[in-house]
Amino acid sequence: MTPTDDRATRRSELLRLGFADVDRAQADLAALGDVAGPLLAIMGRTADPDAAVAGLVRLADVVPDRTAFLGAVADDEGTAMRLLSVLGASAALTDHLAAHPEQWRDLTDPTLGSTRPAARHLRDRLLTAVGADAASERPVSAIPDAEAVDALRVEYRRLLLRIAARDLAHDLGVDDAAAELADLAAGTLEAALAIARARVGEPADGVRLAVIAMGKCGGHELNYVSDVDVIFLHEPADGANEAEAAATAAKLASNLIRICSDHTAEGTVWEVDAALRPEGKAGALSRTLAGHRGYYERWAEPWEFQALLKARPAAGDAALGRDFVEMVRPMVWSVADRPGFVDAARAMRRRVVDHIPAKQLDHEIKLGPGGLRDVEFAVQLLQLVHGRADERIRPAATLSALAELIRAGYVGREDGEALHRAYAFLRQLEHRIQLYRLRRTHLMPEDERSLRRLGRSLGFLRQPDVQLLAAWEHHRREVSRLHQKLFYRPLLTAVAQISGDEARLSSEAAIARMAALGYDDPRAALRHLEALTAGVTRTAAIQRALLPALLQWFAEGADPDAGLFGFRRLSEALGSTPWYLSTLRDEGQVAERLAHLLATSRYCTDLLEREPAGVRLLGGDLAPLSADAMTEEMLATAGRQAGTDKAIRAIRAVRRRELLRTAAGDVLGITDVADVGFALTRLTDATLESALQIAGRSVRAARGLEQAPTRIAIVAMGRYGGFELSYGSDADVLFVHDPPEGASGADKELAASYAKAVVEEVRRSLAAPGDDPALLVDADLRPEGRQGALVRTLESYTSYYAKWSKVWEAQALLRADAVVGDPGLRDRFTALIDPLRYPASGLSADDVREVRRIKARVDDERLPRGADPHLHLKLGRGGLADIEWTVQLLQLRHGAELPALRTPRTLPALEAASEAGLLSRADADVLIGAWRLVSRVRNAVTLARGRGGDQLPTDPRERRAVAGIVGYPLDRADEFVNDYLRTTRRARAVVDRVFWE
User: Which residue ranges does the record annotate as region Adenylyl transferase (predicted)?
Assistant: First the structure.
């Protein structure tokens, strides 16, 4: 073989072994001499062969005897495997070895691969390193402070090096590695406390201090690099002054924190985080046992008890630490009895996710969707719900707790094992990422070299980056799937016979879980589940597959009981319909949307119960249809019916479906509040137009008329005219008709009689009780009110407005919009009223005073007795009436000169007023924001309660539902109310300046 062939073979061999920079690797291997050959295969099994050989060359250059060092490594395969594994996986530990080359001998220990050191051994090593007596009950460092602090860091890294070598070379296992890291952290806290005692001096003898490990350290599942969460606890020593003891405890605690976290020439250890203490960072650094008890009994939030699930004594006074754990244990295991416990836990999880920067979300191993925290969250919830009565499932470590949950039957074996595999993989991935630089990170790297190194460290040797990403994605999906399934699916086993390896909950355990999920009547909920899943039919089988997801979505809604009950009623109505269950099963969006609607909106639930086929709508576009499209469909459907009543019912059925479309889009946050008002208005237009035509045909047929003796138009008024209808609004209208020019007296009488009969038929048929929501058509704004004629001719309107019109009628006509009926008549009516509502001379001072007088009277007389003026949506301070009257006064005063103000709609009028300088941009924005919020809330009240209302609900569940529809998380209903009050208060200030001057 020629030298060229030999070099090519050598290069090919290095590439096969995983070297990336072959030229550099060959130079490093040459520098090692004869030992390179025996070590080459071991290098090929490391995470980064290039880093392993480069690190070995670097270490050989700094050890006292290079030849002996390399010979020892080459002659002992175990030493070589441990050392090269570390050099190939951790740049930080390579740097440490280069700075302390004598520590390589720690890796020659033949027991390193088989024996885990006891926690006491690690503690004693660290205490000895800082010059403290490990046998003392209160160890105190006896060497100079700076020397002790550096010695702590060096010894900590020495012991960390041994753990990393065991982990990398001997497949330590993620749970064993995490437990050993937690023991190392506890020993480090003990050694740091010994140094702190030396710093504080004699006063330290007057206090007993315990350090309680929390979080991953407390749970014996620590990462390579992590903040160590702690709580400090103290008691005065016998005869010591309490105040002095408290001050000393604070000094000891603060010094311990600095000793661990300060940077020195030997680096740092990790941050000690005491933020989980009572009152967080605002609270005292250390408290007595009684002080902790008082806080936890009176003030602590549910999440604080969830955190205490992992509390354990880690350093300091062990007896005091045990007393603390015994004290909080009953509180931890009773927290699930608190109302809203699961909601509070979910809120905490949601806040964590919300704080992840968007660009990091898809790279988060710990906190992102399908990450470590999802597993921990699910396991802890199951522990806290069922651990009250079952002590078997109380281990602090996640994997140990999961094993007990499986053994006790709360999690199915197959699901539990899959979750175990996913969690172990994610933890090991997190460990390997942190080990490289010994930095606290949970982000998956993006560069190819890092992905390659990580993949190889986890055993993926062929296309390691591709295999790694595929495995990560698989386990993320598994976690997301199982997170839902393991909490909700076992509920079905309490009520249905399910074959296979499933969790088996007793009835009482199922009731406890349902109660924790927020069901007010868990026994009834289980009866609904039994009704839905009983039997061996295909329908029951599909329901059993659907319900775990649906139960989670119901539980995330404002009213889980209503969600489940509504689903049962729908299923009973549609269960035999071929498309229903298959649609829910195959189109996940439909099922999720349906669950959200049922658990949030009684209005939507009522519509769905009347229109079960409306479920199909949820799979498509929920954007409202146009008025023309709806009118065309209504008339076509009505035209196929025999008889007027059936034709009107067909029109109302279309209206019911379109109400559902709009309401669903509103609840799901798809349709904007202004678009909701527009959609409801156009739906009313289509309904009235269709009903008017059907009623006209009916009256003509009954009277034997071949054609209509008069033209009829319907003028929208009030919120209907302003395109601002809400779900509970009546349709305020004026009816106008116009006989042919030159009609005789008899013809006019016939026209009047015909017009009255038609409009009465429209009102009667649309308001009649039935399966469809009624539409009340209100003509009380007509001339002379209820005493006046229901329908007048255009000529009569002209005469009335010329003689009797008041300023309030002109104001009412600002929102008149002639939209239904004969187009020509509509145009003529609009031409009639424009000079009235936009007077050329503006308003006189007397008219302005009259508008204000009427507004004051409305404020004084129409607010319901007992209503809170701050929370009344229509008549309250800064509510809809305040804003709309302000806009209308500007329109009356300036509409003649400013065409842009001539609109029945509030928001465009506000924009026009701002552009014309009648309102500052800031004031206009305040009023626009308030109008949108109050209108949104008013709609949400109807959607949540199923009936209209102008008062913000006081019932907590209804208020949560309203907050959720408006866009707030359900646990932030108080924040929603505060925002509402602040918004309306600012709007009222603008109204005071602009309307009342």
Answer: 499-997
Instruction: Supply angle C-alpha 579, 580, 583, rounded to 5.
Output: 75
Whether residues 535 and 460 share a domain: the answer is no
Task: Please spell the DSSP secondary structure of 145-179, one letter per residue.
Answer: HHHHHHHHHHHHHHHHHHHHHHHHHHT--HHHHHH
141: nearest Cα among 187, 184, 201:
201
Of 43, 73, 108, the residue at which a domain comes to its end is 108
Round to whole Å and give the CA distance between 595 and 591.
Answer: 6
pTM for the whole structure: 0.73
3-state secondary structure 480-500: HHHHHHHHHCHHHHCCCCCCC
Residue type, 426: L
Q: Which of 834, 862, 887 is the last residue of a domain?
A: 834
Amino acid at 35: V
For residue 464, give the 3-state DSSP assignment.
Answer: helix
Q: How many domains does the chain have?
A: 5
Q: Does residue 287 belong to any structural domain of this protein?
A: no
Contact assessment for residue 962 and residue 953, using Cβ atoms and an 8 Å cutoff? yes
Q: How many residues does the chain have?
A: 997
Which of 244, 226, 227 minimizes the C-alpha distance to 235?
244
Q: Are 233 and 227 in contact (CB under 8 A)?
A: no
Give Cβ neighbours of residue 241 (< 8 Å, ≥ 6 apart). 206
Q: How far apart are CA 486 and CA 653, in angstroms?
A: 41
Classify residue 731: in a domain, yes or no.
yes
**What whole-number distance in Å separates Cα of residue 677 and Cα of residue 939?**
9
pLDDT tens for residues 425-442? 999 999 999 999 999 998
Tell me how far apart the alpha carbons of residues 245 and 207 are, in angstroms, rounded to a whole number.
5
Tell me whether residue 35 is in a domain.
Answer: yes
Q: Domain residues for 444? A: 336-488
